[in-house]
Amino acid sequence: MAASRATPDKAERRTQLLESLADAIAESGIEGVSIRDLAARAGVSIGTVQYYFSTKTELLLAAWHHVSAQAGERYRQSGIADLPAPEQLLSFSELLISPTPEHRLSHVWLALVSRAAHDPEIAALHRAQWQSTADLLSRILTGANPAREPESADAATELLALLDGLSISVLTEPTRVTPERARRIARTWVRTWLDG
After folding, report:
1. Does position 98 have pLDDT exceeding 50, yes or no?
2. How far apart are CA 167 and CA 98, in angstroms?
3. pTM
4. Which CATH superfamily is domain 7-54 in?
5. Which pLDDT belongs to residue 3?
6. Which fold has domain 61-195?
7. pLDDT 10s digits, 38-59
8. Domain residue limits, the chain
9. What burial letters (b/e) apply to 107-144, b meaning 16+ CB within 10 Å?
């Protein structure tokens, strides 16, 4: 039997650092994160963090890609793509709403999107991700109601903006907008699309 490795390899170490970074962002926001704090959280030296990420910008860009990959994996594991079109629309809409006010991935997403307002590199990543999601949503909308295909691009933008707003409300004002209320509002929008 082979002995287990005493130290993680580079890919594992990088993932460990990104997971620690996601925890830090979810708990304290981006401004509360430092190389020193990340090193302490991950149980490594500052030099180790700087080996993988030489600047805070590089660290945040890596965090964006890490969180984006997790969101993509969550979508793939959901099985939504295998559902009939109307169910895809409902399930995908609900997937895009933060499931709880404490949801870690949602808090990291919100912090990074907020950073996009004044960070051109994060903004470019956000625009690309948002467009990709809107394109997928447009295809799902068309599949769910082919007669409304000419409206699907604008409808995707509208629905995605609604879902973003609902998620922000779930995260920042959970007593007013509970996850259940947010899903109910999204379902009403979806039913209107399907019935239109």
Report:
1. yes
2. 5
3. 0.88
4. Homeodomain-like (1.10.10.60)
5. 45
6. Tetracycline Repressor; domain 2 (1.10.357)
7. 999 899 999 999 999 988 889 9
8. 7-54, 61-195
9. bbbbbbbebbeebeebeebbeebbeebbebbbebbbeb
